[in-house]
């Protein structure tokens, strides 16, 4: 204790951490050593089980061979001959796999197999020439060879099974011993760690308790309370500033909680707007399709001609798809709320391989149709330039989809704002979207020829609650949340390039260090035509 009292708190904690870490390393090294000893027995057992499985497969193949040879000798059918030949090939393959384990038994079995096939062929020829007595005699001889092969296979399987059981028992015994020793080692390490922790803790807690008692005495008005002296360590500094620090810390934590609560509440309200809009849009479309369906089915379905019936079926299929969309976006709205609440607890999202072009295409279509549903006069040219080699990237798809929806929606708003300002002057609202794969990352560019961003606002666009939209049209959280998703959550970049009254281009770069192999699966949002990612120019509407 005297030695510890002369050390700073930092030095004491470093000493404790070093001792605990050394104990942990030693314990892990011992456990690894025991596991390596046990791994050899487990590997041998697994190998024996695989060989035994091959032996059983060889036995099944030989049973098939016996059956088809006998059937061929009796029926002389070509199909039986082919099946017998296939069974022989399969049996020979299994024997070759077993030759490394027991070459003598395999060699004897192969010799017996050759003799069996030769005798069986002679018997079949005798049956074909109607010499049944000779054929029966030869088949009896063939059955002797069959019995010999069966005996060899059974002996091999018995030996393998016994050896595997013995190896397994030995592995279990070694594992049991390793567990017992490991428990002793871990308990000893924990005990030593507890003792060391107690010693270091006591060297800090006792002086700290005296300091707290002195502070409480001063706060109670007892100015004569003696302040303990602890030299030049951290406790000496705490004696001068602990009261002010605690008060300031309490105020700061309270303010941070209020700010975070307001930010999260506004973020949830902002982010849930888009998926709920989609729910409403698809609900409206479903109502219209129901009206069309009622008009089409004015007569009995049985009286419809082929074209009308096809139309009715197409309407039903479309209605079904829209209802699925309703459920999909309803669930997506719930997912946004959960995601934001999880974000408030700094919980990581679930990453999975996602088809980049399919995700961008789906998000672009959703943003476009959402804008059309809100404003039927909305129209914009969508210029796509997708890299066919973009492939898949490991991301949190719902979060990246929200980023893209936000960027597309902002682009649409900027183009429509410029269209309203310039009127019918030949201006053509255009949003250009491109993807490409570059060494180390994938890139998504969203460029619009709208109003651009004022130079004074560029440095503030990723700040929470900052917006260039008129009051009531934006909360100022979209780009802030997008920046957080791309940069902080995915370790990527979100940059902007803009010129006022000319264009705005956002560049999203996501690292692909954990990308899944291209073609490993289909993204859940990839609908019909999602694989068509060649460059194309499509006028919206």
Description:
The protein has helices at 2-5, 9-75, 78-98, 103-128, 132-219, 234-271, 273-296, 306-344, 356-374, 397-422, 455-458, 478-489, and strands spanning 352-355, 381-385, 392-395, 430-438, 441-448, 493-499, 503-511, 536-539. It is built from twelve helices and eight strands. The chain is α+β, with helices and mostly antiparallel strands. It folds into three domains: 6-193, de novo design (two linked rop proteins) (Up-down Bundle); 272-344; 352-539, Heat Shock Protein 90 (2-Layer Sandwich). The protein starts with a helix and ends with a strand. The longest helix has 88 residues, at 132-219. The chain has a six-stranded mixed β-sheet. Strands 1-3 form a two-stranded antiparallel ribbon.
Content-based structural category: alpha+beta
Q: Give the count of structural domains.
A: 3
User: What is the beta-strand fraction?
Assistant: 5-15%
Distance between the termini: 81 Å
CATH class categorisation of the largest domain? Mainly Alpha
* Poorly predicted segments: 242-255, 341-347, 515-541
SSE pattern: HHHHHHHHEHEEHEEHHEEE
Mean pLDDT over the residues: 75
The appropriate CATH architecture of the largest domain is Up-down Bundle
What name does the CATH topology of the largest domain carry? de novo design (two linked rop proteins)
Number of distinct helices:
12
Instruction: Tell me roughly what share of residues is in helical segments.
Output: 55-70%
Rg over CA atoms, rounded to whole Å, is 39 Å
Number of strands: 8
In spatial order, strands of the major sheet run: 6-7-5-4-2-8
Shape: flat
């Amino acid at each position: 204790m005297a030695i510890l009292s002369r050390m700073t708190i930092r030095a004491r904690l470093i000493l404790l951490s070093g001792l605990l870490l050394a104990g942990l390393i030693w314990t892990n090294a011992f456990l690894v050593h025991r596991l390596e000893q046990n791994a050899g027995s487990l590997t041998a057992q697994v190998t024996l089980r695989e060989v035994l499985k091959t032996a059983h497969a060889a036995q099944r193949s030989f049973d098939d061979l016996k059956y088809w040879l006998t059937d061929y000798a009796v029926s002389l059918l070509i199909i039986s001959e082919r099946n017998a030949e296939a069974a022989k090939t399969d049996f020979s393959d299994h024997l070759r796999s077993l030759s490394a384990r027991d070459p003598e038994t395999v060699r004897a079995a192969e010799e017996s197999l050759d003799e069996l096939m030769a005798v069986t062929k002679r018997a079949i020829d005798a049956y074909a020439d109607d010499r049944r007595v000779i054929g029966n005699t030869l088949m009896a001889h063939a059955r002797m060879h069959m019995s010999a092969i069966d005996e060899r296979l059974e002996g091999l399987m018995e030996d393998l099974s016994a050896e595997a059981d013995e190896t397994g028992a030995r592995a279990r015994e070694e594992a049991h011993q390793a567990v017992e020793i490991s428990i002793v080692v871990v308990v000893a390490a924990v005990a030593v760690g507890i003792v060391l922790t107690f010693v270091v803790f006591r060297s800090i807690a006792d002086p700290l308790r005296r300091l707290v008692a002195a502070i409480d005495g001063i706060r109670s008005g007892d100015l004569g309370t003696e302040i303990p002296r602890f030299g030049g360590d951290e406790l000496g500094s705490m004696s001068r500033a602990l009261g002010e620090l605690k008060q300031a810390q309490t105020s700061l934590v309270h303010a941070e909680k209020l700010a975070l609560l307001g930010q999260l509440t506004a973020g949830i309200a902002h982010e849930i707007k888009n998926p709920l809009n989609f729910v409403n849009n698809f609900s409206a479309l479903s109502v219209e399709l129901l009206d069309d369906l009622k008009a089409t089915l004015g007569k009995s379905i049985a009286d419809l001609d082929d074209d009308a019936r096809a139309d009715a079926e197409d309407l039903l299929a479309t209605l079904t798809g829209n209802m699925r969309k309703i459920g999909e976006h309803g669930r997506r709205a719930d997912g946004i709320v959960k995601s934001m609440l999880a974000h408030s607890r700094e919980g990581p999202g679930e990453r999975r391989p996602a088809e980049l072009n399919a995700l961008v295409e789906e998000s672009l279509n959703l943003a476009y149709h959402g804008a059309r549903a809100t404003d039927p006069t909305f129209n914009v040219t969508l210029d796509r330039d997708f890299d066919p080699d973009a492939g898949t990237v490991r991301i949190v798809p719902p979060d990246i989809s929200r980023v893209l929806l936000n960027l597309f929606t902002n682009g649409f708003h900027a183009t429509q704002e410029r269209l309203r300002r310039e009127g019918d002057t030949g201006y053509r609202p255009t949003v250009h979207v491109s993807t490409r794969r570059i060494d180390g990352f994938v890139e998504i560019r969203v460029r619009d020829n709208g109003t651009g961003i004022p130079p004074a606002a560029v440095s503030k666009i990723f700040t929470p609650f900052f917006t260039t939209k008129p009051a009531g049209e934006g909360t100022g959280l979209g780009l802030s949340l997008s920046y957080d998703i791309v940069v902080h959550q995915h370790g990527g970049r979100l940059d902007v390039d803009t010129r006022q009254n000319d264009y705005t281009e956002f560049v999203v770069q996501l690292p692909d260090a954990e990308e899944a192999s291209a073609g490993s699966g289909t993204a859940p949002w990839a609908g019909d035509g999602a694989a068509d990612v060649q460059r194309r120019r499509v006028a919206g509407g």
